Description:
Layout: E1 2-8, H1 12-30, E2 35-39, H2 43-49, H3 55-63, E3 66-71, H4 87-95, E4 100-106, H5 119-122, E5 126-132, E6 144-147, E7 157-160, H6 167-183, E8 187-192, H7 198-211, E9 218-223, H8 224-233, E10 240-243, H9 245-258, E11 266-270, E12 276-280, H10 297-309, H11 314-329, E13 332-333, E14 343-344, H12 347-361
Parallel strand pairs: 1-2, 1-3, 3-12, 5-10, 8-9, 8-10, 13-14
Antiparallel strand pairs: 4-5, 4-11, 6-7, 11-12
Helix pairs in contact: 1-10, 1-12, 6-7, 8-9, 10-11, 11-12
Bound molecules: nicotinamide-adenine-dinucleotide (NAD), 3-isopropylmalic acid and magnesium ion.
Magnesium ion binds at residues 249, 253.
Amino acid sequence: MRVLALAGDGIGREIMPEALRIFAIVQGRCGVRAELVEGAIGTGPLMDEGNPFPAATETEARNADAVLFGAAGDPSLDHLGPKRPDSAIGALRKLLNLYGLVREYRIADAQLAMSPLRPVRARSTDFAIVREISGDVYAAQPKGQRIAEDGPFPGEVEGFDTMRYTESEVRRIAHLGFRTARARSGRLVSADKSNVLATSRLWQRVVAEVAAEYPDVALTHQLADNTAMQLVTDPASYDTILTANLFGDILSDVASALTGSIGLVASVVFNETGQVYYEPGHGSALDIAGQDKANPIAMIRCVALMLRHSFDRPDLASTVEQAIDEVLAAGLRTAEIHVDGTTLVSCSAMGKAIADRLEALLPPD
Ligand SMILES: NC(=O)c1ccc[n+]([C@@H]2O[C@H](COP(=O)([O-])OP(=O)(O)OC[C@H]3O[C@@H](n4cnc5c(N)ncnc54)[C@H](O)[C@@H]3O)[C@@H](O)[C@H]2O)c1
Ligand SMILES: CC(C)[C@H](C(=O)O)[C@@H](O)C(=O)O
Ligand SMILES: [Mg+2]
């Protein structure tokens, strides 16, 4: 197995070493065989060679069996348009034909105090969001700026994007949604805006057709704005949520916040060739970068997901997750989740604590 690690920008450079520390322990102790390659993406190669997604990284990504991605993005460089550092994310997703992002959100009892929700609402929260990430308004053409010919202010410059999905794109992500729900508690909510959007009406029809192949999964259609509200008022009612790219982007960040921090949530992203990609739910967080303050848990959870999905080692994945749970239960907290009565630790100290716990949990050589 060839694993490509792309730390990228901002806190990506601080959390990736913590994730690789965990991977090194598992490799050394458990016979997990992998060749690890590190590559450049984002602001670094943009400054060095004028390209946030250089050809060498493209080649490494093509050749990798699994990709661990940190973060990319620097809002002060957004004016660079197609060369902005976070454009590398879309380019990488496109290159690898990634289409389905799955993120699981669980509020363990030891985490209840971290959630912004009262315990009575947060308790028993355990759901997944399956988000389509290759299409929608993100990718579809035409998009751009032009002079408005009609509307309330003709003659002004207007920005426009195209929302678009084909039946096959919806069918492909719907299958991932149903498979995910089947492996969990068998309840799938498909969130769309079929009350206003033609794209969503197609989405709803195709999802309903695919449902016939999964009689054991209970499907409900829900309007995405209602889903946003109910995620906050009653998150424990959800098992699996299936949604499109833009709605999924927003619903995922709402869901992350419920767990206490976006720094706790990891994603696995699938294409159709078996090559798998892992990334935390958050971005480069430049406001805290370079201060050893970031929460490395989302990135470390990516290693657990990689052990489960790319190395077929669910036992090791669960042990890494157990080490994280035990360190949180012992009261260690990075700055963004620290409250009175818990122990404030740095990014590297959190990583080290999880690594020590993991060493203790793993069977002797
Ligand atoms: N997959 C990715 O690489 C990805 C995802 C989202 C945003 N971005 C990019 O990152 C840049 C910054 O975006 P943003 O500020 O909207 O989102 P962000 O996720 O980087 O940060 C949002 C907030 O969450 C906090 N935060 C994020 N991760 C954290 C962690 N691990 N520990 C503690 N606190 C954490 C940050 O300090 C910030 O206050 C933008 O350029 C954006 O395009 C990249
Ligand atoms: C940075 C951006 C392109 C990306 C997205 O919108 O998909 C990010 O917000 C995410 O959630 O991974
Ligand atoms: Mg996002």
